[in-house]
Amino acid sequence: MAGKKLIILVAPTGNQKDREGSHVPVTPDEIAEESFRCYKAGAAVVHIHARDPKTRLASGDMKIFGESIRKIKEKSDILVQTTTSLGLKQDASGKWVWHSSEERMGLLAIEPSQDLLSCAMGSWEFIHPEGGQGNPTTQINGYEFMKTNISNMVKKNIPWEMEIADTGFLQNAKKLADDGAFDGKAKNFWLDYVMGFGGMPATPRQLIHMVEEGQRLFPQAPWETNATGRDQFRMNILGAAMGCDIVRVGFEDSVWLPDGRQAKNNYEQVDAMAELALKLGREIATPAEAWEMLGGSQRARAA
């Protein structure tokens, strides 16, 4: 796929605990600074979660999301994507639980607005191999939540990502399109193949199968490789060689570099991915190019 631009997406924070030996940005200032460094290294998209600056744990506070977005955009034109889940929170008993559907749909009203959105296309046993809060746990994405959330994203006219964590997620997406939640032939959504977080494994055979099935159901949709732990770069390299449109790196998923060393900062992973992509003949997309590739409109782009 020489000559086809490749989007590097970085997820610098996530809802995992701090990683010893790696700097996980937490406050809006830290997230904005790390996003800027990743942008300079070649990232066109930053995928953000909010953290409570005091506890350093995941937060559903929309003001923190908004402040992070504002500070990121003060430094560069990198595209900002928000999480689909808000991460985990502790209930009254101290148990780690996912935020409610109503809380999660509050992401649609953040000010300033994000550039890109996402929605997981089904429920699964979420198991991060490198640990974290409430790990393992069941992430619930019921049909009515998906239908309502996606319909509202479409109304917002922002490019969005389908998180595909298992084979059945593609069939869920097809049913949602058939039921009118979104236009299955539109060019403003993409398929994100989430491997190694429970659900489907991070193996070449699995990725090849998913890509073939995704292209059968949504032939016009761009696609992304997204793997965890030490599989991150291995699967990204395979995806880039197969012609994927997006690869994802960042400490939400993994702290490792291609040579097995632990990265101290997210931008080291971006820099390593950019170098590998160029060796595969893949030029790195700018934020403006990524916006066009993902079907963004001039009217919808956040200021």
Spans where pLDDT lies below 50 across 5 or more residues:
none
Distance between the termini: 33 Å
Mean of pLDDT? 91
Number of helices, counting only DSSP H or I runs of 4 residues or more: 9
- Strand percentage: 15-25%
Q: Taking Cα atoms only, what radius of gyration do you get, to the nearest Å?
A: 17 Å
Fraction of residues in helix = 25-40%
CATH architecture: Alpha-Beta Barrel
**Looking at this structure, what is the CATH superfamily?**
Aldolase class I
Q: Strand sequence of the main sheet, in spatial order?
A: 5-2-1-14-13-12-11-8
Order of helices and strands: EHEEEHEEEHEEEHEHEHEHEHH
Descriptive keywords:
single chain, 303 residues, alpha/beta, TIM Barrel, 8-stranded parallel beta sheet, 9 helices, 14 strands, globular
Please provide a written account of the structure.
This protein has 303 residues and is an alpha/beta fold. It has a single domain (7-293), classed as Alpha-Beta Barrel (TIM Barrel), CATH 3.20.20.70. 35% of the residues lie in helices and 17% in strands. The chain has nine helices and 14 strands. The chain has helices at residues 28-41, 62-75, 101-105, 143-156, 167-178, 204-217, 232-242, 266-279, 287-293, and strands spanning 7-10, 45-48, 50-51, 58-59, 79-82, 88-90, 96-98, 117-120, 124-126, 137-139, 160-164, 189-195, 223-227, 246-249. Strands 5-2-1-14-13-12-11-8 form an eight-stranded parallel beta sheet, sandwiched between helices. The chain has a two-stranded antiparallel sheet with strand order 3-4. β13 (223-227), α7 (232-242) and β14 form a beta-alpha-beta unit. α1 (28-41) runs parallel beside α2 and α1 (28-41) packs parallel to α8 (266-279). The radius of gyration is 17 Å and the shape is globular. The model has no long low-confidence stretch (mean pLDDT 91).
